[in-house]
């Protein structure tokens, strides 16, 4: 094996063969040789051309994400941002869109939601969970429906004298409005994806939403799954709170501040 490396693979690395650079960078990263790994990844992405995404079976999006991680270890925030944006906008990398949503977005809810949707649609289950949290929080009137940075918000969705619900964007939803009910439906769909993937938080939220819908047996199944998960201690306060109030007639978990309890 060492002979093959010295006579063939090493030569390919020295000649900047894309696949060889990629594999050598990954090997160096696993071995903790971060400086060489970063140099190799950056040498690789310097070949970033219009057809680079399919060239020699190299995943350039993942390479850019590796650069972001290695740049973060050096405290290079600007380098991290550049790498993540390249991975997202050039190569549609799901993890990059998730990071953009969590770290690099403006206060715009629409932008935040858009990045999460792109990530979740490509299989990033953490983004699916965050979408569920966003829609659930909007349904509770805790987060504006359009602009997370809006300062002058007011409750909408309350029926006036005409019996019509007040429309509006960049505003809060009334908890029992039709719009809030629609948001809870969306939240349930995204939490279901996260729950199926084993995310404890999604299982907890899904249990609460199922309780609201009167699906107590199914909800209790997910609450028990959360209790049995490896990450249960992170959510133990919420799990205990929901279980203690599960059978009470006046329990309405659609109003519960889950993150606050946590």
Entry keywords:
13 helices, single chain, elongated, two-stranded parallel ribbon, 262 residues, mainly alpha
General description of the model:
- By secondary structure, this protein is mostly helical.
- It has a domain at 199-262.
- It is built from 13 helices and 2 strands; from the N terminus they run ααααααααββααααα.
- The protein has helices at residues 2-14, 18-30, 34-45, 60-73, 77-89, 94-104, 109-121, 125-139, 178-196, 200-212, 216-228, 232-245, 258-261, and strands at residues 155-156, 172-173.
- It has a two-stranded parallel ribbon.
- α2 (18-30) runs antiparallel to α3, α5 packs across α6 and α8 (125-139) runs antiparallel to α9.
- It is elongated.
Largest sheet: 2 strands, parallel
Q: Output the strand order for the largest sheet.
A: 1-2
Shape: elongated
Radius of gyration, in Å, reads 23 Å
Number of helices: 13
Helix content range: 55-70%
* Contiguous runs where pLDDT drops below 50 for at least 5 residues: 148-169
Mean pLDDT: 83
The percentage of residues in β strands lies in under 5%
Structural class, from secondary structure content? Answer: mainly alpha
End-to-end separation in angstroms reads: 51 Å
Q: Give the SSE string.
A: HHHHHHHHEEHHHHH
Let me know the number of strands.
2
């Amino acid at each position: 094996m060492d002979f093959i490396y010295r006579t063939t693979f090493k030569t390919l690395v020295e000649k900047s063969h894309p696949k060889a650079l990629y594999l050598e960078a990954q090997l160096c990263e696993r071995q903790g040789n971060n400086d060489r790994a970063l140099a190799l990844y950056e040498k690789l992405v310097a070949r970033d051309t219009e057809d680079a995404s399919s060239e020699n079976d190299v995943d350039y999006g993942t390479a850019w994400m590796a650069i972001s991680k290695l740049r973060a270890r050096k405290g290079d925030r600007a380098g991290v941002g550049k790498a993540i944006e390249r991975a997202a906008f050039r190569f549609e990398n799901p993890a990059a869109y998730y990071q953009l949503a969590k770290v690099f977005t403006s206060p715009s809810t629409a932008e935040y939601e858009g990045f999460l949707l792109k990530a979740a649609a490509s299989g990033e289950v953490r983004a699916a969970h965050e979408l569920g949290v966003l829609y659930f929080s909007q349904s509770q009137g805790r987060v504006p429906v359009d602009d997370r940075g809006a300062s002058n918000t007011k409750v909408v969705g309350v029926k006036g004298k005409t019996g019509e619900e007040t429309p509006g964007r960049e505003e809060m939803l009334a908890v029992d409005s039709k719009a809030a009910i629609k948001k809870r439906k969306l939240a349930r769909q995204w939490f279901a994806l996260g729950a199926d993937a084993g995310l404890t938080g999604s299982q907890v939220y899904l249990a609460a939403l199922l309780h609201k819908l009167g699906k107590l047996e199914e909800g209790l199944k997910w609450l028990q799954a959360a209790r049995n998960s490896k990450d249960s201690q992170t959510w133990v306060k919420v799990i205990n709170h929901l279980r203690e109030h599960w059978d009470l007639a006046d329990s309405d978990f659609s109003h519960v501040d889950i993150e606050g309890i946590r």
